[in-house]
Amino acid sequence: MKNIRNFCIIAHIDHGKSTLADRLLQTTGTISDRDMKAQALDDMDLERERGITIKSHAIQMNYTFEGEDYILNLIDTPGHVDFSYEVSRSIAACEGALLIVDASQGIEAQTISNLYLALEHDLEIIPILNKMDLPGAMPEEVSDQIIELIGCDMEDIIPASGKTGLGVDKILEAILTRIPAPKGDENGPLQAMIFDSVFNPFRGIIAYYRVKNGVIRKGDKVRFLNTGKDYNAEEVGILKMELNPKKEVRAGDVGYIISGIKTAKEVKVGDTLTLAANPCEIPIKGFEDVKPMVFAGIYPVETDDYEELRYSMEKLQLNDSSLVFEPESSAALGFGFRCGFLGMLHMEIIQERLEREFNMTVITTVPNVSYFCYLHKDKEKAFIVNNPSELPDPSGVERIEEPYIKAQVITKSEYIGQIMNLCIEKRGEIKNQVYLTQDRVELTFEMPLAEIVFDFYDRLKSVSRGYASFDYHPIGYKQSDLIKMDLLLNGEQLDALSALVHRSNAFDLGKKICSKLKELIPRQQFEIPIQAAIGAKIIARETIKALRKDVTAKCYGGDISRKRKLLEKQKEGKKRMRQVGRVEVPQEAFMAVLKLND
Amino acid sequence: MAGIYIHIPFCKQKCTYCDFHFSTSFEHYRKEMIETIGKEIALRKEELKHVTIASIYFGGGTPSILNTQELNFLLQKIHANFDVDSSAEITLEANPDDISAQQLAMWKDGGINRLSIGLQSFKSSDLNWMNRAHTVEEALSCVQLAKKSGFNAISVDLIYGLPDLTMEEWKHHIDEVIAMDVQHISAYCLTVEEKTALNKLVNEKKIVPAGEDAQSEQFLELSHRLKKAGFLHYEISNFGKPGFEAVHNSNYWKGVSYMGVGPSAHSFNGSKRRWNISNNSKYLKQFASNAYFEEELLTLKDQWNEIVMTGLRTTSGVAIEQLKALFPLDEAFQLALLSFQKDGMIEFLNNHLSLTDKGRLQADFIASEFFKV
Questions:
Q1: CA of B237, closest CA in chain A: separation in Å?
Q2: Which residues of chain A neighbour B187 with C-beta distances below 8 Å?
C-alpha cells in the first residue's frame, strides 16, 4: 500500500487538464505513442469535441522512481458544475490533487469550488502552472493567486506545459513524494467506495471503486450498502487503457467490478461496496441520492417515433443513472417525456447523445426547475411541480417555493458593475465580494435556480466579454411570488410554453416572448395573434401579418423539376412543424424563451 | 403534338436579374456551338418520331443575335429531322436593340411567325440598373417596326415589383403595352435568384426589393387592366388575346412533350425529364461522348406533384381525371380542397380544379398543400 498514490486533477475547462494527463500516460508508458490520440481519457466523441470530461475515468500507471516501483491511480473528474456530486466522490477517492491553472488565464470559479472540496477532504494539493509555453503566460501573477488561495510556497508550484512536456517529470516526482500513501486495513471487512460506473453493451455495468479497507476478490459475494443488493463479483481488476482482470484488488487501490448488473440505476455513485458474508458496519460517509435540478419535455420530431424515443431514453439511462423521465403529453407536441437533468449542460448532452447515438431528432421544451406548491387545504404538504402546466388552480394555492442557489462568479474588476446588474435583474442578492488579486474579484450571490435556466450563461458571457467564470450549488427552497404565464397562439394555448415566472418579470418577459415568437413563426395565409396571459388577463400581444402572396411569377422555361423540388422541400419542412390550432409552429419556437436576447 | 426548344447561350451583356444560362464572350466558339446544336437536333430525331411538332421556340440567352445563316441552318436541321406542322408556332425571343427592318425581314423569311420581345420596362433608370442593352425609345419603337414588317403574333415581356416602381408608373407601363396592340403579354415579378448580380446588390443593400404588398397590388392591377383590355389571364404570368395563347409555353403547363437542345435546355417526354449541361465549353467538349446531359425518371408521385403545380397555374386548371389516373383522391386531398373552396381560393368546375383571382396570389402554397411527399 505504501507504494500506491491516488490522485485527481482539478482544473477549469480549457486549462489543459486532458493534454497534461495524456503526457503523464505517455511518460509512464501506460499508453504507447502510437496509440495516442489526443485526450486519450475522454471516450465519448462529445467529450473530445466539447473539450470537457462528462464521465469520470480512472487509469492506473506504473512508474519507477529511485529504484522503487509505484502504482499511480489517476481519477479524471467531470469538469462541469452539473456533475459536482460525481466530482466530490472522485475527490473522496484520492489522497492528493493536481491543481492545474492556465498560466495565461488564472484561477476560475469552477477551480475554486472544486479546490475547496479537495481541501475539505484533506487532499494534498500540487499546484501546477500549465501552458507556460504560451506567449501570454503570466506566471508571477497567477502564482500569487495560487499562493493566496492555498497558502503554499512559491517553490511548490510546478511550471509545466502539456504541449511541450515541460514539468512532467517534476509532477510525477511530486506525486510520489508529496502525496501520502493511502491508509487502510487490508485485513478488515471490505469497504470500497463507488465513484463511477459505465455501461458496456456486452458486459453490463462496470463499477469503479476505491478500496478503503479489506480486499475484494473474484467470485466474492458483494453487497451495495445503500441499495442493499447483493451480486456476484464475476470479474474484478484494475483499469489500464483497457480493463485488466486480477484475482483481487486490495486496500488503497482503485479497481473495477463486473457483476451482472444491467442498468446504471442499480449502482449509485458514492455507495459503499462490501462483502455479503462479512459486511463492514458503517457506510462510507457522503453518499447522496442525486436529484435532478432541471426539467424539460423531450418530444420526438415525428410523432410516430414516440416508442423509439422511449427505447433510446431507456438505453441512455443504462449508462446515465442521473437521467430520469416519465411520459407526458402536450396538446401542441403530442406524446413525449418529462425529463429531469442535473443541469443545463446535462440536458444538452442528453439531447446530443439522443441525436448522435440513437439518430433521434427531438424537440426539447423550455426547461424549468422543480417547484414546491402548498395548497390552502394542506399548508404543510408540498406538492411537487415539475411542469408548469401542472400547477393547480391559483385560487387553491397558498404559496409556492422555488429552489435557490449560491452562485460564485470570478471576473475582472472592470466587469463587476455589469455582472451585478445582471444578477440583480435575475433576482439575485449579492452576499460577498472578495478581491483575489488587484483586478480579479470573486462575487457571491444567492439567486433562484430558475434564473440560471433562462439565458443566464450567455448573458454573463456577453456582459463580461467571456472573462467571467461561474459556479453554483443549491441552498434549498424559498418562497417566491410566482405566477403562471401562458402563451396563446391564434387563441389556442401553447401548453409547452407555459412558465412559472416572478410577478415582477411577467410583463417584460411576456412582451419579449411574444416578439420572439413573431420572429420564429413563419407568416401564414391568415393573421395570427400571439398573446401572453396570466389567467384570463392578456399582458402582451403581437400579430403575425397574413402572408399576402405566395406565388412564383417568374419565367422558368421548361425547368419544372427545380420548381417542383423547391415546393416539395418547403412542404417537407412544414411536416416537421407542429400544428397548434390552424397554426404551423416550427420547433425552434418551443425553445424561444431561451433565445430572447439573440 | 410536341414542341422543340433551342437554347442560344449567347448574350451581348448580362442583365442583373437573369439566372438563365448564357455567355457574353462567345465569338471564338460561336460557329462550333451552332454546329453542335445542329448535331444534337439530328442526333435526337428518334425522340419525337411519330409526333407532329406544333411549336418551335428559340430562347436564350439572346436568339436575336443569330445571323441569317445560323438561324436558317438550325431551322433546316429541324425540318429535315422532324415532322413540323405547317401551322406550327415558331417563336424567336428578341431584344429591342436587335430589332431592325432588315432583321425582321430575315426572321420572317426564315419562317419565324411569332416574336417574344423583352421590353421589361419603360423607365430609363430601371433599364439602366437592370443592365438592359436597349433604351426606352427602342422599347417603344421596336413593336411598331415588327408590326410593320408583318408580324401579327407579338408577345412582350414586362417586369413588375421593381424596387422603386410606383403604382402610377406601373399603370402607365400596362397602358403602353395595351396601346401597342400586341397579341400576348408575359409579366414577371422581379425575383432575386442566387448567383445573380441582383442578389449581390440586394445583399449589399444597394437595392431594396419591393415589398410583398406592392408586388401583390401590381399583380392585381395588371390582371385587372389587361382583362379589361380583352386579354385572357390564362396563366399566372401570361396574358393573351383569344386565340393567341402561347402554344409553346402552354406545353410546359399541360404536360405535353418537348425536346430542348443546346446548353442548359430541358426536355420532357411524359415520364422523364432531362437537362443539358449548363456550361458552354463542357457542352461542346462532352457532346461527342454523350456526357452532356442528365436525366431523371419521374415517379408517380413526382408526376402528381407536377400536374398539380403546373395545372393550377393555368385558367383551365387541373383535370381531376389526370390525377385519379395516378392515385385515388384521398381524404387529405378532399379536406384541402374543401378548405380552399371555403376560403374562395379554388373553384371546382367541370371536373377541373382552378384557382380564383384570390387563389392565384397563393398558387405555390395551394399547390404544395395538394402535393404528395
A1: 6
A2: 553
Task: Please provide the DSSP assignment of A123-179 as one string.
Answer: PEEEEEEE-TTSTT--HHHHHHHHHHHH---GGGPEE--TTT-TTHHHHHHHHHHHS
Is B361 in Cβ contact with A567 (below 8 Å)?
A: no
B271 in a domain, yes or no? Answer: no
Q: What is the pLDDT of residue A322?
A: 84
- The residue among B199, B305, B333, B356 with the most chain A CBs within 10 A of its CB, best to mutate, is B305
Kindly list the residues from chain B whose CB atom is less than 8 angstroms away from the CB atom of residue A302.
none
b/e sequence A215-243, b meaning 16+ C-beta within 10 Å: bbbbebebbbbeeeeebebebbbbbeeeb
Please determine, for residue A38, whether its predicted confidence score (pLDDT) is greater than 60. no
Say yes or no for a CB contact (<8 Å) between A550 and B362. yes
Range of the domain at B319: 299-373
- Which positions in chain B touch A573 (Cβ < 8 Å)? none
pLDDT grade, residue A440 (50/70/90)?
A: confident
Same domain (yes/no): B36, B183:
yes
State the nearest Cα–Cα gap between A525 and chain B, in angstroms: 8
Q: What is the pTM of this model?
A: 0.70
Both B141 and B231 in a single domain?
A: yes
Q: Give tens-digit pLDDT for A525-536.
A: 889 999 999 988
Is residue B142 in some structural domain?
yes
Q: Are residues B235 and B324 in the same domain?
A: no
B286 in a structural domain:
no
Closest residue on chain A to B20 (Cα): A556
Residue at B40: amino acid letter: E
Q: CA angle, A445 as apex, A444 and A448 as ends, to 5°?
A: 150
Query: Which among A555, A558, A567 has the least Cβ separation from residue B188?
Result: A555
Distance of CA B214 to the CA centre of its chain: 23
CA distance A301 to chain B (A): 17
* Torsion angle of C-alpha atoms A324, A326, A329, A334, degrees rounded to 10: 70
The crossing angle, in degrees rounded to 10, of helices A560-575 and B300-311 is 100
Residues B215 and B74 in one domain: yes
The alpha carbon of A8 is separated from its chain's Cα centroid by a whole number of angstroms, namely: 19
Q: Which of B89, B103, B181 has the alpha carbon at shortest distance from B144?
A: B181
What is the tens place of the pLDDT at every residue in A568-597?
A: 998 888 877 888 888 999 888 887 776 776
**CA-wise closest residue to A25 among A181, A206, A141, A172:** A172
Position of cell 472573462?
A467
Give the C-alpha separation, B226 to A112, whole Å: 78
Which residue has 415532322 as its cell numbers? B83
Give the residue from A592, A488, A594, A595 showing the smallest Cα distance to A539: A488
Q: Is residue B267 part of a domain?
A: no
The CATH number assigned to the domain holding B315 equals: 1.10.10.920
Which residues from chain A sit within 8 angstroms of residue B5, using beta carbons?
557-558
Please give, rounded to a whole number of angstroms, the shortest distance from the CA of B93 to a CA of chain A: 12
Q: What is the mean pLDDT of chain A?
A: 88
Are the Cβ atoms of A564 and B368 closer than 8 angstroms? no
**Residues B166 and B20 reside in one and the same domain:** yes
Beta-carbon pairs below 8 A across chains A and B: 97
Domain count for chain B:
2
Q: Which residues pair with A300 in a beta bridge?
A: A362
Decide if B212 and A548 are in contact by the 8 Å CB cutoff: yes
CATH number of the domain within which B6 lies? 3.20.20.70
- Could you give the percent of chain A with pLDDT greater than 90? 46
Same domain, B46 and B107: yes
